[in-house]
Amino acid sequence: MDTTRTTESSEQTRSVDHGPLGRDRAGADETPTAPLPRAPWTLLGAADPVAVAEPPLSSRRLLLQLVVAVIAVLAVVTIGGSLAARRLAEREAVADAADTADVLAEGIVQPAITDALIDGDPDARAAFDAVVRRQILGGIVVRVRLWRSDGTIAYADQASLEGKHFGLEDEEREALASPRTEAEISDLSRPENALDRIKGEKLVEVYRPVWTPDGRTALFEIYESYDQVSRRSGQLWRGFAGVTLSTLLLFVVLLAPVVVHLLGRARRAQEQREHLLRRAVDASSAERRRIAATLHDGPVQDLAATSFVVAGATASAENGGNGALAEDLRTVSASVRTSIRALRTLLVEIYPPSLSRAGLGAALADLGQTVRAEGLQVRLLPDADDALGLDGAQERLVYRVAEETLRNAAKHAAPGTVTLTLRRHDHAVKLEVVDDGPGFDVAERLREPAPGHLGLQLLCDLAADAGATLEVATAPGAGTHWRLTVPDHEEPRA
């Protein structure tokens, strides 16, 4: 609902301008009066984001939201599926590489390895190299190495690495200590992988222990091409994407009729709600007219008749020489006429005929005449009704705020000057009412309203309920500047 907030920005802390807020109908410039002490803007009433009615339903907007949601799901599925497929492919490739290494170690390397090869004998190295190139290298295996237990390379298909000491990683030492096969994606940052790092090749690395005829332990290591991971990842992704996309498309096809049905029901419910709101507004207007007609045809006419009767009785008393009675009757007659004026003013407040018959501008002009009769100078600077583009409810809100602020000015600022400006600015209509009266303390007025004076709180509630913003800039001795901002209604889209 309404909120109260004092803001101190460059705009909002400017002095209250009690000069004219625009040109009059003739277009002549008016000389501004001297500004009074500055007063900050205080936000009295603003629309509650939760309470403001939602914009009309739009099939185009809902369809766009559905398409965006489908695209977002597709993007998430694509990225997530790609990552999941690559991870699964790497896992499968590592497992396959471990199986390949076991087969090669048991079937080819173990029978061909000798103690002389481990000791660096050239003939043993040549014989083992021939076996490796004939039976192991080629296909998916691209590198073969044989390590001594101290971390020295005893054999490598890249001969420049033989005899070099690089040391064993913890995993490799554990594989030797507790015989098992280990497989992983190669780390090209290791020194022994410098040649592969230059080529930029990503490989699958597998190692396991082997033994010489004399029982000496060596570490057999092979590197397999990463291409198999990419191929397997593509296969998994295509299968995963096919199932996922077909399921998603089927879901969209099945969901479309449901969305259309729900959209139709929601639109009908909204139309029904708008119809009920229009009926409520019409009923309120009709009730106001009925009350106004009842007051006019009943108490007002009775009081008018009473006034005539009292006037006749006054004349009779004077003719009969009863001056005291005539004076009392004149007092009664004046009181009756005052009551008639008060009731007629109330009739205009309940149902201003000029607002519905001649428009907002004419109603404000009538209101200005009423306030002028109470000793206040009023300058009205409204735009034409067509230029404002307000609907009936918005016109009633503007009139109600103008009425309350002008009557407050007449009560507290007279004799003085009040300027009312009504303008369209950007996508809103702004009503500004400025007087050069004594002003008041907003915080104190909101905290402790005078008994029976709820006008300020009612204005706050009216503005908040209508989605408008009501602000005031005032302080004791600084005059009062009211500002009502009525935003445009959002137009429904097809």
TrEMBL record:
Broad class of the protein's primary localization: membrane
Topology within the bilayer: Multi-pass membrane protein
Family annotation (Pfam families): HATPase_c, HisKA_3
Region feature Disordered, mapped onto this chain: 1-40
Key word Cell wall biogenesis/degradation present: no
Membrane-spanning parts: 62-85, 240-263
Listed GO CC annotations: plasma membrane
Gene3D superfamilies linked: 1.20.5.1930, Histidine kinase-like ATPase, C-terminal domain
GO molecular function per UniProt: phosphorelay sensor kinase activity; protein dimerization activity
Biased composition (Basic and acidic residues): 14-28
The Histidine kinase/HSP90-like ATPase domain, residue ranges: 393-490
Cell compartment(s), UniProt: Cell membrane
Keywords: Cell membrane, Kinase, Membrane, Transferase, Transmembrane, Transmembrane helix, Two-component regulatory system
Superkingdom of origin: Bacteria
Keyword Nucleus: no
Residue stretches of biased makeup (Low complexity): 1-13
Name of the molecule in the record: Integral membrane sensor signal transduction histidine kinase
Native source organism of the sequence: Nocardioides mangrovicus
